[in-house]
């Protein structure tokens, strides 16, 4: 399984300038390739192949107008074109119906004003981790790294990221072996919600931390301070950075909490069953702020890849399954239930807590689905993980 390990970088001033050049050159190459394909389409020419775009970039470095592209590693430029080619392939697969999920549009130009910049180095770039712990990047230098854990294997690539808060990260992709945990007898169904972040089928209720709500006062004050700054001024840039750092702290805290919770659930249960919620649709309702603050999608992705890595079963239950309205004792499905009805009694005489009953039904439906398919829950579709639960608050 491919995993992604992130570490904080601390480049000096000269290395920051070199990274800025790399970000800019990668952006220019991406935009040049996109512009070339758009012009070819307008002129009725054939679709420019990946190889033709690569040859054009190589030739452009020999011209006076693009000679400064030689100041960065050629791998960075080729990876930028690779991102463009991937974006086009995803677009074609989307319009043909070969790609699941929402429809993907054509690639768009990258802007130098984007809050997030990134460049990728592969093994061809000959990046290396030195004995003193620094990361050697071609034409950038030896960058200090804050190693919060040991890499489990030799990385195949590293992506250097500058986020909106001005922090630098190195994201390594490694091929890690699966580590099955000892089998246990427990299984759990999880009902995700807003009143409680998660309710388990054994009756455990996990309160919603509401990290964004807790930081709302500070974020509001920083945002009002930003709105009073003149556009284009240095003070406005400083205010923007303060707002970005505050949001980054909220996101890091939420991610750390979700990693710890998901690890505990996977460790203690042999099988985990979760309802497949339509987070995109819920994000368009009046509850959008609370839905995004909860971060259900990220949490279920953590459960999925950790289950695949540690030998557990993970199953998503159909989102249209009436888990809330069905009696877990007799199977009777009631009519629509309002959100303020937190408990109800079935005509069969069973009294139910709304969320616990839903979690029990999700567990039963997930177990039935798993037995019908006779295979573990989607291990082949696990994507490379994002940050794991090693977030240092003082690193912000």
Word description of this protein:
40% of the residues lie in helices and 17% in strands. The relative contact order is 0.12. It is of the alpha+beta class. Helix 1 crosses helix 3 (74-95) and helix 6 (234-268) crosses helix 9. The longest helix is centred in the middle third of the chain and has 35 residues, at 234-268. The chain has helices spanning 13-42, 50-60, 74-95, 211-214, 216-227, 234-268, 279-282, 288-294, 296-309, 354-373, and strands at 2-9, 117-122, 128-129, 135-137, 141-143, 145-146, 157-162, 168-175, 187-192, 196-200, 205-207, 271-275, 313-317, 343-345, 351-353. The strands form four sheets. Strands 2-7-8-1-6 form a five-stranded antiparallel beta sheet.
Which sequence of SSEs, written as H and E, runs from N to C?
EHHHEEEEEEEEEEHHHEHHHEEEH
Silhouette: elongated
Instruction: Average the pLDDT over all residues and give the rounded result.
Output: 89
Regions with little confidence, pLDDT below 50 for 5+ residues: 375-396
Provide the helix percentage.
Answer: 40-55%
User: Structural class, please?
Assistant: alpha+beta
Largest sheet: 5 strands, antiparallel
N→C terminal distance: 30 Å
Bin the strand percentage. Answer: 15-25%
Total beta-strand segments: 15
Number of helices: 10
Strand order, largest beta sheet: 2-7-8-1-6
Radius of gyration, Cα only, in angstroms? Answer: 25 Å
């Amino acid at each position: 399984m491919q995993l992604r390990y992130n570490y904080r970088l601390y480049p000096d001033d000269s290395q920051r300038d070199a990274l800025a050049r790399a970000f800019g050159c990668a952006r220019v190459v991406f935009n040049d390739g996109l512009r070339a394909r758009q012009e070819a389409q307008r002129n009725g020419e054939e679709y420019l192949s990946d190889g033709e775009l690569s040859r054009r970039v190589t030739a452009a470095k020999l011209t006076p107008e693009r000679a400064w592209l030689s100041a960065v590693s050629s791998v960075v430029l080729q990876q930028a074109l690779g991102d463009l080619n991937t974006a086009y392939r995803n677009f074609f697969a989307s319009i043909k119906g070969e790609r699941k999920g929402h429809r993907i549009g054509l690639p768009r130009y990258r802007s130098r004003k984007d809050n997030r910049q990134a460049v990728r180095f592969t093994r061809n770039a000959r990046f290396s981790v030195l004995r003193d712990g620094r990361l050697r990047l071609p034409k950038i230098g030896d960058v200090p790294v804050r190693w919060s854990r040991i890499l489990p294997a030799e990385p195949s690539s590293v992506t250097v990221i500058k986020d909106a808060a001005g922090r630098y990260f190195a994201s390594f992709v490694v091929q890690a072996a699966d580590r099955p945990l000892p089998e246990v007898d427990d299984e759990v169904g999880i009902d995700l919600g807003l009143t409680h972040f998660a309710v388990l089928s054994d009756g455990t209720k996990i309160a919603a931390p509401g990290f964004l709500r807790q930081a709302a006062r500070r974020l509001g004050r920083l945002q009002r301070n930003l709105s009073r700054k003149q556009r284009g001024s240095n003070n406005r840039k400083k205010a923007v950075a303060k707002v970005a750092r505050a949001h980054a702290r909220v996101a890091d805290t939420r991610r750390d909490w979700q990693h710890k919770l998901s690890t505990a659930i996977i460790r203690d249960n042999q099988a985990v069953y979760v309802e497949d919620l339509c987070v995109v649709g819920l994000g368009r309702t009046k509850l959008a702020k609370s839905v995004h603050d909860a971060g259900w999608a990220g949490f279920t992705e953590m459960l999925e890849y950790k289950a695949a890595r540690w030998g557990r079963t993970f199953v998503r239950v159909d989102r249209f399954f009436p888990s809330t309205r069905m009696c877990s004792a007799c199977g009777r499905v009631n009519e629509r239930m309002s959100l303020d009805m937190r408990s109800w009694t079935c005509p069969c005489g069973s009294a139910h807590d709304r969320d616990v009953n839903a979690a029990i039904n999700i567990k039963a439906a997930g177990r039935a689905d798993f037995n019908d398919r006779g295979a573990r829950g989607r291990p082949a579709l696990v994507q490379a993980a994002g940050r794991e639960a090693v977030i240092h608050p003082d690193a912000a």
